[in-house]
Each structure stands twice: as structure tokens, then as C-alpha cells.
Amino acid sequence: MTDASGAKLDASLSELGWLDMLDEIPGTAIPLVFRLLGETGAQAPVLNDVVLRAAGQPGGTTVPLPYAGGSWVVWERTDIVTSALDEELPLRRVTAGEPVPTDAARRALGWWLVGTSRAMLSLARRHTLDRVQFGRPIASFQAVRHRLAEALVAIEGAEASLQAATEQPDELATLLAKAAAGQAALTTARHCQQVLGGIGFTAEHQLHRHVKRALVLDGLFGSARELTREAGGMLRDKGFAPRLVQL
């Protein structure tokens, strides 16, 4: 994934048997592929395959995907960029779409967001070790450590939630895991941008790519804010909060 992205990576994954893995070992294939997409900064339209397979349809095509605010997008299987937010993603807005299965897609997006968060944290950590102020690396400053620690705690919590939702698939657990992953990515982006300072806002540094990617992925299949509100409504209707994970 470090050498390919977009349509080229899509074709390579297809040759490796991505669709077969998605059918036979989804609990392994989805976390592996989507987390690596996040960690490497690559992209491929394979979210379409997750949705189509969950609906019992053949993969390899596209399907309208729900986006934040009640809107819909299509993730094209080309390299023609149509997204104003992320110049590397071939996303196209459409007026509407049919209801699609959400659970598998939300887990996939959650793993992608976790991978993206870890990529941002790695960039920030490397910067703190290289950047020297007052004769010592800024990694030794308590304020910097606190920001990185808070980001790491958010990432680890989101990953634990995703692991639980992957091992024991459940609508509420999956919804909360996607929300946790989205919130972790936003928290990590905020702290890493502060740690990197001015260079983190420049196009020359890689951080901005991951920040924009996190914003787009958070919006797909419901943003962290929307999903948290939806989870609250589900719990209110049930009248109780089930135990999601056996501690």
C-alpha cells in the first residue's frame, strides 16, 4: 500500500483475492486492509465492496453511501478527483441513495480512522524527538507529552471498541465503535496539529493529508456527533444500557 493508491491499489487488492477474503474471513480482512489504508495514507474504493457484500451483491462496482447531514456520495472506482475537502478522493455527491447495510461499513471506517490516527500520532511523535528548543527536544516538555498521551488514550480506546464490535458484531456496539474512532481521529488531529505548530498547517508536511482524510471518513455513515446522538436515542427507547463488553 505504500507504493500504490486509488485505482491501482484497487486492482492490486482484487488480484490478491480481496473479495474472497471479504467473504471468507471478514473479521480479519476488514481490520487489516482498512487499518493499513489509514496508516499508509493510501486510498482505495473498497468500502463499496464491504457494503455490496453485506447486501448480498457482487463487489467491484459502486453504490451511493450515506454521508453526514443526510447527504449521499459515490466513491468512484477511478482516479478522477471530485472532492473539494480531500483532493485525493474520487468522491461525488449525489442527490439520494437507497438504504444500505451499515454495520460492516462502520467497522471498516472505524479501522481506517484508527489507522489514520496512528499515522498522525507517529508524525507528531517524530517531530517532538527532532525539534529542539531551549537545548532539549520538545518531547521532554510536559505540555507536549500530555497532548500526545491524550491522543494515544483516545486511539487505544477506539481500537478496543472496534475489536469488541468485530469479535461480537452488534448494531449498538458497532455504532459506538465508529463514533469512538471518529472522535479519536478528531482529538488526535487537534493535538498533533498543536504539537507540530506552524509546520503542521503547511502543505509541505504530511499531517494535513491525514487530517483531511479523517474529516471525510468521520462523515461517512454518520459523524461521531450524529452517531452519539443516535446511540442516545436507541438507549432511551430501550430503557436500559446493555453491557457491550465483558470486562
UniProtKB/TrEMBL annotation:
One of its GO terms (biological process) is fatty acid beta-oxidation using acyl-CoA dehydrogenase. Keywords: FAD, Flavoprotein, Oxidoreductase. One of its GO terms (cellular component) is cytoplasm. Residues 105-223 form the Acyl-CoA dehydrogenase/oxidase C-terminal domain. GO terms for molecular function: acyl-CoA dehydrogenase activity. Pfam families: Acyl-CoA_dh_1. InterPro entries: Acyl-CoA_dehydrogenase, AcylCo_DH-like_C, AcylCo_DH/oxidase_C. PANTHER family: MEDIUM-CHAIN SPECIFIC ACYL-COA DEHYDROGENASE, MITOCHONDRIAL, MEDIUM-CHAIN SPECIFIC ACYL-COA DEHYDROGENASE, MITOCHONDRIAL-RELATED. This is Acyl-CoA dehydrogenase. It comes from Mycobacterium intermedium.
